[in-house]
């Protein structure tokens, strides 16, 4: 089969991603994430984004999630520890995020989360590369 360098991930009003693990083929120089919000709740109540980070930085990044950073920034401050971050969307919306896979070390330990306050506990997955 041809290498697929893209995936569609959906978030729900139940605060869940439908995908708990992403595997990026080593032949993909770019990888396209389409994030959909399959629910109906508005972005300020049940916002979802997708944020990629090194797993070792997970607790540190989670500790920085704060409403004061604004929804347009995914409630996160500017930090190099955030490798990629999509727009935050509400019910019925979708957004795309292109990953430059050269940022990842092959075999490294990476995690993705939704950075809406409190969502990381349920909205978390593993990236394999
Ligand atoms: Co969310």
Q: Overview of this structure, please?
A:
- This protein has helices at 43-46, 58-64; strands at 6-11, 21-23, 30-37, 51-54, 82-85, 94-100, 110-113, 124-128.
- By secondary structure, the chain is mainly beta.
- The two termini are 18 Å apart.
Summarize the structure.
The protein has 129 residues and is mainly beta.
Structural class: mainly beta
State the major sheet: 5 strands, mixed
Helix content: under 10%
Low-confidence stretches: none
Radius of gyration, CA atoms, in whole angstroms = 14 Å
Q: Bound small molecules, which ones?
A: cobalt (II) ion
Strand-residue fraction?
25-35%
**Anisotropy-based shape:** globular
Number of strands: 8
> Topology as H/E string?
EEEHEHEEEE
Number of helix segments? Answer: 2
Mean pLDDT: 96
Question: Order of strands in the sheet with the most strands?
Answer: 2-8-7-4-5
How far apart lie the N and C ends?
18 Å
